[in-house]
Amino acid sequence: MDHSDIIPSMSMLPMLKRLLHHDMWANHRAIEMSRALPEESERCRKLMAHILTSKKMWLGRIHDTQDGKLDSWPDLSWQQVDDLLAEMNVAVPAYLDSLSEDDLSRVISYVNPRGMNISVRLGDIITHSMLHGQYHRAQIATSVREAGGEPVMTDFIVMAIGELKAEQVG
Predict the structure, then answer these.
(1) Is pLDDT above 80 for 164?
(2) What is the pLDDT of residue 113?
(3) β-pair partners for 111
(4) In a domain, 1, yes or no
């Protein structure tokens, strides 16, 4: 199916900013639930490192910097994960704020780790970057449950319901 007729006309930027807001909220909750376990979960730490490093890697691909070649599965300490979270919570919103709707249809080209030349629209990269973490946060929740912990909900709708309740109270 050819989507070329609808992609440039969609007003995506506000939705991408909303998805980013959720992504940042959910990452924070996933880290908190992982760190609340009685014993450290290496799997949870590595999954969070992957989520955040992948974001940094995508920014590097977009800007054609060395970060685009980062290993997306690094073995980071929790402190390094926290530092990377803080860095991405500044860099990604700032980047989105610099964009216009027209920028989202721009084609970004890069070479993937397998040496393949890839071209994809910027809006699709950003969308993927926001959705990618959802998959891995579900893996984190499973790992937390398996370690005897209680997973927290990181679904978009949970955030939206909480925000509306907060608006209605305050």
Answers:
(1) yes
(2) 87
(3) 117
(4) no
Q: Specify if 5 maps to a domain.
A: no
The confidence score (pLDDT) of residue 158 equals 95
**Apex CA 100: angle with CA 96 and CA 105, to 5°?**
95
Q: pLDDT of 75-119, one tens digit each? A: 999 999 999 999 999 999 999 999 999 999 999 999 988 999 999
Q: Does 3 map to a domain?
A: no
In a domain, 22, yes or no: yes
The residue with tokens 């690094």 is 74
**Other CB atoms within 10 Å distance of the CB of residue 170:** 5
Please state the rounded mean pLDDT for residues 6-35. 88
Q: Residue 120 in 3-state DSSP?
A: strand
Contact criterion met (CB below 8 Å) for 119 and 109: yes
Q: 91: Cβ–Cβ under 8 A, 6 or more apart, which residues?
A: 56, 59
Count up the domains in the chain and report the number: 1
**3 state DSSP class of 119:** strand
Neighbours of 72 (CB within 10 A): 16
Q: Which domain holds residue 153?
A: 13-169
